[in-house]
Predict the structure.
Amino acid sequence: METALITGANGFIGSHLACELVRRGFMVYGVHRSPKSKNEEYNRFVEEGKIVTCLGDVSRFDTSKLPKADYVYHIAGRVSVWGTLDEFLKINLGGTRNFLKYAKRCNAKCFTYLSSVAVYGFYGYKLLAEDGEKKPFKNPYSLSKLETENFVSEYAAENNLPYVIIRPGNVYGEYDYTSSHEVYGHVKEEKMIICGGGRYESCWVYVKNLVEAIILTSQSERARNTDYNVADSNTSLRDYLTKVALAFNVKPKFTNFPAPLAKLVAAIVEGTYKLLCIKKAPLITRFTVCQNCADYSFSTEKLEAVGYKKLFSEDEGIRRTVEYFNQVF
């Protein structure tokens, strides 16, 4: 039986990945900070002994206590629009360094790092390929992701460690208590606010399609030692949210915030928070505004060239997500 270690295994993406690997016959070891997952299937597999959990902070975890794994999936990381670069690097770079060393000791078949398309920045582009220039927005999350990407590729090359870097677009799906939970809730209540009319093209990926891409690229020798964008579709924010509203059987009712005004308000709010040293993230930031006020879509030709085919259409992904949130809202 092959083995896989997943950091952040009980989270949104990590739990979907863990459960799919179990279904494919893997023994899974999950490293995370909290004992329970929102994903009930994950919790059931833990109870059945098909997933073994190890609690701890990835940046300080003593990996010598872990059993060897054939595949290492580093999903854990600090995800936020607010904070200092040092705080992000401690987790995103420090944790990655820790588990790269673990993967080397294991002589792992592949180390997979989950990055983000945010490393490209928000400059208005369509179907950008992986060789596009990386100019991340001056946000600690984006900056830390790119710095960590560079470290992964350099470390892997120096140590002859097979690796894959995955850059997903806007991930949505069941058990997402980050962006999807808030957005879908606002749409259902007909209280969704959008910027710039929601006309800009963006990228969306259903979590089960993302998991398929992660597993395919890590376990195919010809797909390793490079990076991949992962997106199902390149749809405008308004069109995507309209599909969500119709799936909820409510009116696609959105309150529009003109882009220039939204950027001004975000700058003022951020400046105030920094002046007052407020650590809690503000409700509006330049990162979130700029992300939705420029075309922001990516080519997946490179991923498709190694055999990737999405399992679910955007409509089906939205339907499944809405079905889940109808049970929890």
Notes: The first strand starts at residue 3 and ends at 7. The CA atoms of residues 171 and 325 lie 15 Å apart.
